[in-house]
Amino acid sequence: MTPVYQVKSAAVVKSGRALLQDIDLEFCAGELVVILGPNGAGKSTLLRTLAGLEPLSGGEVLLGGNPIARIGRRELARQVAMVEPMLDLPFGYSVEQVVMMGRAPHMDAWFEGAEDWAQVETALAVMDCTGLRKRDYRNLSSGEKQRVLVASALAQQPCVLLLDESAAFLDVRHQMELFQALVRLTAQGYLVVAVTHDWNLAAAWATRIVLLKEGRVAAVGTPQELAREDLLLDVFGVALEVLAVEGRRPVVLQPGAIEK
Questions:
Q1: 5-253 belongs to which CATH class?
Q2: pTM
């Protein structure tokens, strides 16, 4: 079976600086892949290359076996939805209007049909946003805005969902609900690729983790395979302690003061 994505020797260079170098990865349907790494490692750049938003300086990215650069923007939007960290809107759109924006690739004109509203309803419910539907998007909290943006992406009905730090503004409950929703999507055959800084959040839910360091892939594997103190020290430059918990995925503890 052809992977959803094939990334072959991909490189991104800007102003003489290599943001990505020699990236070779494959992503398959039904996976929840989390990209981790320190600031400046190239996480968001890699996500943008998968979305077709970042031109490559070398190599190629194939989506369904086709070079992503040759896929039309409308067709790409029907297959791939990306949720970026935050969206500020200058006008007073309601939450349901923002979620309806995700239907744009499927609409022949700016008129919503029954199917469009059905997908909006489903997306609002999945992201616990139904009660917000008539609220002005601008007046929401950061966490509420992030949930609405994910709902808009789900309404797009993509086969690939890309999320850049979408859990960053969420409280613990909504972080769990977001990742539970993502896992349900992978069970339906979606590919989900998410960027986060939180190892323990990634380890709790990811099928695989991609560790980036200085624009290169440092390691790829399951959370259990990558929970190595030597590897984490090399990638993050901090001595972290890996805690094995029976029946649970490995937890990483940060260094801190010892209570006396």
A1: alpha beta
A2: 0.88
